[in-house]
Amino acid sequence: xxxxxxxxxxxxxxxxxxxxxxxxxxxxxxxxxxxxxxxxxxxxxxxxxxxxxxxxxxxxxxxxxxxxxxxxxxxxxxxxxxxxxxxxxxxxxxxxxxxxxxxxxxxxxxxxxxxxxxxxxxxxxxxxxxxxxxxxxxxxxxxxxxxxxxxxxxxxxxxxxxxxxxxxxxxxxxxxxxxxxxxxxxxxxxxxxxxxxxxxxxxxxxxxxxxxxxxxxxxxxxxxxxxxxxxxxxxxxxxxxxxxxxxxxxxxxxxxxxxxxxxxxxxxxxxxxxxxxxxxxxxxxxxxxxxxxxxxxxxxxxxxxxxxxxxxxxxxxxxxxxxxxxxxxxxxxxxxxxxxxxxxxxxxxxxxxxxxxxxxxxxxxxxxxxxxxxxxxxxxxxxxxxxxxxxxxxxxxxxxxxxxxxxxxxxxxxxxxxxxxxxxxxxxxxxxxxxxxxxxxxxxxxxxxxxxxxxxxxx
Length: 459
Ligand code: HEC
What we know:
This protein is of the alpha+beta class. The protein folds into three domains: 7-146, no CATH class; 153-277 and 413-459, Jelly Rolls (Sandwich), CATH 2.60.120; 281-412, Jelly Rolls (Sandwich), CATH 2.60.120. It is built from eight helices and 25 strands. The longest helix has 19 residues, at 424-442. The radius of gyration is 24 Å and the shape is globular. Residues 48-49, 51-53, 60, 63-66, 78, 81-82, 85-86, 91-93, 108, 110, 350 line the site of heme C. Heme C binds at residues 48-49, 51-53, 60, 63-66, 78, 81-82, 85-86, 91-93, 108, 110, 350.
């Protein structure tokens, strides 16, 4: 995601004392010095928030921001919630601890000074100020709005191939939770040879799409952007007439709540002559066999995973349900040295991020991954579906999970030339994954949740 930094903030960063002074001024007699929307808050919103909070806010994996923060009237109405969202760290949405700043793609951190300034603006009465002061921001404004959803409607640009349901899927009024397995068809003749995916994007039909899983597109969940693989990294899409996806719908019930879902998926492929060195593999790393006692506010489970060959780690995707509280991936190198790969201190089920390295990380054979999950099964956890229940690993959202998905590739480059080589091992694996999904489709179990079936990819 592109962000621009207002030059004013760069050249003269607001210090905390200054922000505090502004705050004091707001409460004191010099109210005219309280920060205003156009002079002070807008540039900060532009830098940190407007990528999502703009008119017709772009779809972020199925959810859109509820208001535009470029608009004074809306920002003023939302001011108390803005303060709250900033103070709690709920916005901007991002789970990785500050210590990881600079490590992952599309990270979202707001500088402390900027946060203080916005809070001072709210406390000072969310004043408007002089719209003319925003004139400088006009250029910036267009550059950021331009960084929102592209005109094509796809973050990845105009896809080489789009797949859709044959007809919209009806999710009736009475349905609250439904997990059908459905086929998405390729347009006639559009995909007659296996091709290497460089980018994949799921375009959920609406906020009722809880998540989507397929073997070739990854997992689409709220808060997750498209998959854009690094150069030379790819996933093979076999030449089937369709792709099988597991949908998970979740919505309110009652008259008029029924919807027609037209979720789509788009792909961009590598061109002939491009070289694929790293074939993306995934492992869910699920951990079962524990019971979280009823009411326990801080229950921890641990697991380990041995790295058997040299790999490049591309990304990590922690997964728990509503009692999930925090999660950590730690690496123990063969020499015993330890490194925290990912620390998510405030896990939020509603935002399931995939933490993707800016540069895939080399992990030597013989290393051990230590994963830890923390759960809050007390009634203080406002998301807790039932604090009186002992909870185990299970598919329903009222059960729990302790997964630590990783995407990675063996470190030895494969040197596959697109259009010339078609490694049989990769092709067979890709076909088998799709086949398995289809067979399971016959055994459709509507209470089944989540990505448990993906474990067939596990080594
Ligand atoms: C990645 C996109 C994204 C960014 C960046 C972002 N937001 Fe949001 N925001 C959302 C979405 C989506 C929602 C609605 C869903 C929700 O409330 O969880 C939301 C909701 C909110 C809410 C309502 C919360 C509530 O309690 O109902 C506030 C306030 C808010 N954002 C403020 C901000 C501020 C201030 C920033 C910048 C510092 C920001 N957001 C950055 C996507 C974003």
